[in-house]
Amino acid sequence: MDRILGSTNELAPDAIKTLLKKYLQDPDAGFSIGAVGALAEFHSDEDRQQLSKGLGISSTKGAIRLERLDDAQAIAFETLSAKPDAWQHGIAIFISKSAADEPPDVLTELGEDTQAIQEIHRHERLFDLGVGVGNARFCVRTGDPDLIKALRASLGTRIVDVEHPLTKVIVAASPHRVVFSQLGRIEVYQKIPIHRTPSGAHTHLLPKLAKQKRTHFSNVPIPPEHQPVLTVHPAHPLFDNAGERRTFNVSSHNKFQTMLKEHGHSDYVFRKEQINHAVLQGDAPTAMPPARTPLQRLATRIALRQLAHLNPAALEGSLWSQHFRNP
Fold first, then answer.
1. Rounded to an integer, what distance in angstroms lies between the CA atom of residue 32 and that of residue 208?
2. 3-state secondary structure the chain
3. pLDDT tens digits for 121-176?
4. Which of 211, 262, 275, 326 is deepest in the core (most CB within 10 A)?
5. Which of 141, 143, 140, 122 lies closest to 131 in space, CA to CA?
6. Section 263-290 average pLDDT
7. How do residues 3-25 score in pLDDT, each as one tens digit?
């Protein structure tokens, strides 16, 4: 069994570090740390610059720093999008649950943020908002005496999955958000948006999802007893950095497919290859063995969505779209 369970190739810690360096230098790649409904995302801006110390990038809107890669593993994956002709992809970096922290599920003061990426922020106070999911801590950081007083008044209470008056205070004050895992941290400096997701570094804190306390969605093939501590988001063929639709980019698609073949789940990769071959050969769906697992069913649907962009003539008039292209 490979170190990456079910993958086609193992990535040692040094190789993971090399991979992360590559994507940190890619202005079209993004990163996220956190859980379902509670995460920070780092997307590059024009003012991006490498950190002078450590592995990471900073900008006026936020920063990312990665470290402690010794126990990390990785797997490339694809998932369905709500858009019927689209999909998402990424590279999940994960660790054993036994190595994870047990974070609080109530508002907790952590003291000065001595690990802040910029030295100027290392005397500001860090407060864990109490998401309570083991793969990451979702925090706010501030030096504002009034906000510190308000936060301290609610210590020990649940504020994430209930309607708590402190949340409006936090949104109005817009302190820095700091989300960190055992692999690193993302810091967000720009204001908390009210109406739409901004470009550059930002956070999402959605109580209805966060209260489910899931480290990741079930269709991301992370092995049992493991959990993600970072997700890399390479350039997508259908969407730009802001998530806006663009003309299908074959180069971006091919680059990720190479990564998927090398470091994806072998069962998933094999099923996609089967579907691609069958469609391009003109075989009927009934000629294919039925999908045996949820991962194989996912591979079938995504392979057909991708073929609709790569070779629409092969699908046109065939039975494949009727069988497997349901959203």
1. 19
2. CCCCCCECCCCCHHHHHHHHHHHHCCCCCEEEEEECCEEEEEECCCCCEECCCCEEEECCCEEEEECCCCCCEEEEEEEECCCCCCEEEEEEEEEEHHHCCCCCCCCEEEEECCCCCCHHHCCCEEEECCCCCCCCEEEEEECCHHHHHHHHHCCCCCCCCCCCCHHHHHHHHCCEEEEECCCEEEEECCCCCCCCCCCCCEEEECHHHHCCCCCCCCCCCCCCCEEEEEEEECCCCCECCCCCECCCCHHHHHHHHHHHHHHEEHHHHHHHHHHHHHHHHCCCHHHCCCCCCHHHHHHHHHHHHHHHHHCHHHHCCCCHHHHHCCC
3. 999 999 999 999 989 999 999 999 999 999 999 999 999 877 899 999 999 999 99
4. 275
5. 140
6. 89
7. 344 555 567 778 898 999 999 99
113 within 8 A of 122, measured Cβ to Cβ? yes
What are the structure tokens assigned to 84, written together?
């019927």
